[in-house]
Design goal:
It comes from Acidisoma cellulosilyticum. The chain is of the alpha/beta class. The chain is built from eight helices and ten strands. It has one domain. The strands form two sheets. Strands 3, 4, 5, 6, 7, 8, 9 and 10 form an eight-stranded mixed β-sheet that branches. A two-stranded antiparallel ribbon has the order 1-2. Helix 1 packs antiparallel against helix 2 and helix 2 packs across helix 3. The chain is globular and about 60 Å long. The N terminus is likely disordered.
Length: about 280
């Protein structure tokens, strides 16, 4: 048992104290991050609740600022590499989906609104944040397809860029699942726009390259609860996400939806494997 001299000749037992310190520090980190995000949400949410009804770029810039602040609160650094982002027309960004973390990470890097499944619009608190971020909710039901497609066309007409996850769900973080061609129906819109694939990989944990055994730590899939996964992630420091932007595609280039899905999936999957392999 390790001992160290204390006052008046007393000794202080250290065994059992230091082993518990990382757990205590992790718990404190979680609490501080929750409080910081809540305060930041109120600060950004109040003006955004007004801006979404007004013309101008403010309703796009505030969400960018909000998500960047959330990443900072989480100790997450976002690195963006690859092809330049398109600025002269609306863009539909399509890429892999691993976790709820993808939302703040992509929201901090891309000036775009998310396309999300309808259930998200019913989640407590999350639904409010999503609506303030001008998320488009889709039910994936035939009955609502026409209205949802009209909403998407309307956003593109207004000049809004969109973020879409063609996998249709989150993965385990070790692979990129095939892209569903049905999700790329937006590419058939007559509104001029570009399709830009992206790859998102979490490649730093506690300031070190993510090991193969730790990849699943970032993944939120199956029946995982959001609160428990947040607690798991928020205990760590030195997180990093790398986003690789691939060359934009003209959806009017003659490729079918199936071919577009295959081509964009291949770009994303190959890039994700390369990032994990390089570990730089």
């Amino acid at each position: 048992m390790a001992e160290t001299p204390g006052r008046a000749g007393r000794t202080v037992e250290l065994d059992g104290v230091w082993p518990a310190w990382p757990r205590v520090a992790g718990a404190v980190r979680v609490v501080l991050r929750v409080l910081a995000i809540l305060i930041w949400t109120v600060i950004c949410g109040l003006p955004q609740a007004v801006l979404i009804f007004l013309p101008g770029p403010g309703k796009v810039r505030v969400p960018l600022l909000y998500w960047r602040g959330c990443c900072w609160c989480m100790g997450m650094t976002v690195r963006v590499t690859g092809a330049p982002m398109v600025h002269d027309m609306p863009v539909v960004f399509v890429g892999n989906h691993t976790s709820w973390l993808d939302i703040p990470v992509l929201g901090a890097a891309l000036p775009a609104c998310f396309i999300a499944k309808g259930e998200v619009g019913k989640w407590p608190v999350i639904s409010i944040i999503s609506r303030l971020g001008r998320t488009i909710f889709v039910s994936r039901k035939v009955a609502g397809a026409a209205r949802e497609n009209a909403d998407i066309r309307g956003r593109l007409t207004q000049g809004d860029s969109l973020i879409l996850f063609p996998e249709g769900t989150t993965s385990d973080g070790a692979r990129v699942m095939p892209f569903r061609s049905a999700f790329l129906a937006v590419a058939e819109s007559e509104v001029p726009h570009r399709l830009q694939p992206f790859t998102l990989v979490y490649d730093r944990l506690d300031f070190l390259p993510v090991r193969r055994a730790d990849r699943s730590l970032f993944a939120w899939f199956g029946d995982m609860e959001l609160a428990s996964h947040f607690n798991q992630i928020a205990r760590h420091r030195g997180l990093r996400a790398t986003i690789v932007l691939h060359p934009p595609i003209d959806p009017k280039s003659g490729l079918s939806r199936k071919r577009l899905a295959q081509q964009t999936w291949h770009q994303v999957a190959v890039s994700a494997a390369e990032i994990r392999r390089n570990r730089d």
